[in-house]
Design goal:
With 498 residues, this protein is α/β, with parallel strands linked by helices. The protein is built from 20 helices and eight strands. It has four domains: 43 residues; 185 residues, Rossmann fold, CATH 3.40.50.300; 71 residues, Helicase, Ruva Protein, domain 3; 171 residues, Peptidase M41 (Methane Monooxygenase Hydroxylase, Chain G, domain 1). It has a five-stranded parallel beta sheet. GO terms for molecular function: ATP binding; ATP hydrolysis activity; ATP-dependent peptidase activity; metalloendopeptidase activity. Pfam families: AAA, AAA_lid_3, Peptidase_M41. Belongs to the AAA ATPase family. Keywords: ATP-binding, Coiled coil, Hydrolase, Membrane, Metalloprotease, Nucleotide-binding, Protease, Transmembrane, Transmembrane helix.
Length: 498
């Protein structure tokens, strides 16, 4: 009935305006006042309800998911923790007997690309729940109250969809929650504060006794930025770390993504897992995809190991470039990379995976290292050897040219970062010290002392192998790329002949 009254009123006003215009009355002021009144009335309805609609429409596309935990690799510990937490939704009758409070929120933290979104989708599948997803940026607007309105509409939509589908629960996934859940500092960010306050209110349990139950799963890679009120028990009850996979996890991920690809029988995925140290799940997926692309370029029916090796280089360094260096530059770059490779083999035998002279990304050449096993703790001796490997290129340039080039800039950054780690870990002559109390001059003195000492050791070590440099230089310039095994065989042969 209300709809008809609105149509009748609108028709009457329109006819009245036409009548006034026909009688020669100036209707412009009437139109301005009418437009202003309509705008005020429209904007005052629900503080942002109008602008929350687009977000709701987007989330409707994600309410059905078929992702399961078996399709996610490399996160066994995170999957186990998440499964235990989700059992509170699945086994509601059992937890009611024991008087266990329903879980309200799960926070997934970890680096980008580790599978936090996939875990949220698998959680919805595991609990047979409606799944809605949103990004933290969708709730941020310059108008006060818009974000809060979108939060209300998101929770309302989750309940309505769950009831309509006959589900007992719904999972709401909010990616990059640090956008709206950052620490409140009492400043002028009223929109952020109201959005966060509304989220806190929804999670506080106003509707906790109602069916269907709402479980919030949020993801962030900056947990330290979140407000303490959001992190407390009763809101986010579980904090689950989703870290970079270890070698076993990387192998599992590679096998999952290789299931629909024609891998050659000679491909050793364990070797690929070893060479992709530090890769996230997203990067490993990209390695398999890029390997298939390289196979297609060469019109190969199967994906060979060399295709995956090139894919690792592309993911790490970028695509090959067509920059043409002069003969002098190529020789300097070759000596620089040989300095890295020879230093690496001397301080950590078997660690070089590939030596390349071809430009890739911003680098004119590179050495890819193959860690023999994943490491999580580092000794002073190990970090010293890492610095010597990083300084090997600059040391080789000083030995043969008497000076360095700008190509050592990235190596020096890496070396100084290692020095900072050593200082903060109490592995220097300073002992245990608060790094925040270090002055810039003190940092400069410590860094100069450590790097100068290790540079002298590196130069002395490489100077004793000058003949190895000169004899292997021609081979590298000719071949452009040497595998780790070929390089070690060459190094062994030249060392014996020397």
């Amino acid at each position: 009935m209300r709809k008809y009254w609105i149509e009748i009123t609108a028709g009457f006003v329109l006819m009245f305006v036409i009548f006034l215009a026909f009688r020669g009355v100036n209707i412009v002021p009437f139109l301005l006042f009418a437009g202003l009144g309509a705008g005020v009335w429209f904007a005052s309805r629900g503080k942002g309800r109008m602008t929350a609609l687009p977000g709701s429409k987007r989330s409707k596309q994600l309410h059905t998911v078929s992702m399961s935990f078996d399709q996610i690799g490399g996160q066994e510990r995170a999957k186990q923790e998440l499964t235990e937490a989700l059992d509170f939704l699945v086994k509601q009758d059992e937890i009611a007997k024991l008087g266990i409070r329903p879980m309200k929120g799960i926070l997934l933290t970890g680096p980008p690309g580790t599978g936090k979104t996939l875990l949220a989708k698998a959680a919805a599948h595991y609990t047979d729940s409606i799944y809605l997803a949103a990004s933290g940026s969708e709730f941020v607007e310059m108008y006060v109250g818009v974000g809060a309105g979108r939060i209300r509409d998101l929770f309302k939509e989750a309940r309505e969809k769950a009831k309509k589908a006959g589900k007992r629960s719904a999972v709401i996934f909010i990616d990059e929650i640090d956008v709206i859940g950052g620490k409140r500092d009492g400043g002028q960010h009223r929109e952020y504060d109201q959005t966060l306050n509304q989220l806190l209110t929804e999670m506080d349990g106003i509707h906790s006794d109602e069916a269907p139950r709402i479980l919030i799963i949020a993801a962030t890679n900056r947990k330290e930025m979140l407000d303490s009120a959001l992190l407390r028990p009763g809101r986010f009850d579980r904090h689950i770390g989703v870290d970079l996979p270890d070698k076993k996890g990387r192998l599992h991920i590679l096998r999952l993504h290789a299931a629909n690809k024609p891998l050659d029988e000679s491909v050793d995925l364990e070797r690929i897992a070893s060479e992709s140290f530090g890769f996230s799940g997203a990067q490993l997926e990209s390695v398999m995809n890029e390997g298939a692309i390289y196979a297609m370029r060469e019109q190969s029916e199967t994906i060979l190991e060399q295709h995956l090796a090139m894919a690792i280089d592309k993911v790490m360094m970028g695509e090959k470039t067509d920059r043409e260096a002069t003969a002098e530059e190529r020789e300097r770059v070759a000596l620089h990379e040989l300095g890295h490779a020879i230093a690496a083999e001397l301080v950590r035998p078997g660690s070089v995976s590939q030596v390349a002279l071809s430009p890739r990304g911003q680098a004119l050449g590179y050495v890819r290292h193959n860690p023999q096993q994943d490491r999580y703790l580092y000794t002073k001796e190990y970090l010293d050897s890492q610095i010597m490997i990083a300084l090997g290129g600059a040391a080789a340039e000083e030995i043969f040219y008497g000076g360095r080039s700008t190509g050592s800039r990235g190596d020096f950054d890496q070396a100084m970062n290692i020095v900072r780690t050593m200082v903060e870990s109490g592995l220097t002559e300073l002992g245990i010290i608060d790094a925040n109390m270090m002055t810039p001059d003190k940092w400069a003195n410590v860094t100069r002392s450590i790097l100068d000492e290790l540079m002298a050791e590196t130069k002395a070590m490489l100077e004793a192998r000058r003949d190895v440099f000169t004899q292997s230089l021609e081979v590298l310039i000719k071949e452009e790329t040497l595998s780790g095994n070929d390089f070690r065989a060459l190094l062994s042969r030249l060392s014996k002949s020397a």
